[in-house]
Amino acid sequence: LYRTNTLLVPLGDDFRYVSIDEAEVQFRNYQMIFDYINSNPSLNAEAKFGTLDDYFQTLKDEADRINYSLPREIGSGQVVGFPSLSGDFFTYADREQDYWSGYYVSRPFFKAVDRVLEQTLHASEMLMAFLFGYCQRIQCEKLPTGYAYKLTAARRNLALFQHHDGVTGTAENHVVLDYGTRMHTSLQDLQIFMSKAIEVLLGLRQEKSDQNPAQFDPVQVRSKYDALPVHRAISAREGTVQSVVLFNPLEQAREEVVMLVVNRPEVTILDSNWTCVESQVSPELQHDKNKIFTGRHRVHWKASVPAMGLQTYYIANGFVGCEKAKPAKLKLFSNLSSIQCPTPYDCSEVEGDVVEIENQHQTLTFGVKHGLLHKVIQKNGLQNTVAEELSLYSSTGGAYLFVPHGEAVPISQSGGHLVISEGPLMQEVYSYPKTAWENAPISHSTRIYDGGNTIQEFLIEKEYHVELLGNNFIDKELIVRYKTDIDNKRIFYTDLNGFQMSRRETYHKIPLQGNYYPMPSLAFMQGSNGHRFSVHSRQSLGAASCKQGWLEIMLDRRLAKDDGRGLGQGVVDNRVMNVVFHILIESNISSTSNPVSDPQPLNPSLLSHCVGAHLNHPLHTFIAKKPQDINVQTHWRPFSPLTTPLPCDLHIVSFKVPRPAKYSQQQVGDPRFVLMLHRRNWDPSYCRKARSECTSVADEPVNLFNMFKGLAVLNARPTSLNL
Question: Do the Cβ atoms of 219 and 246 come closer than 8 Å?
Answer without folding.
Answer: no
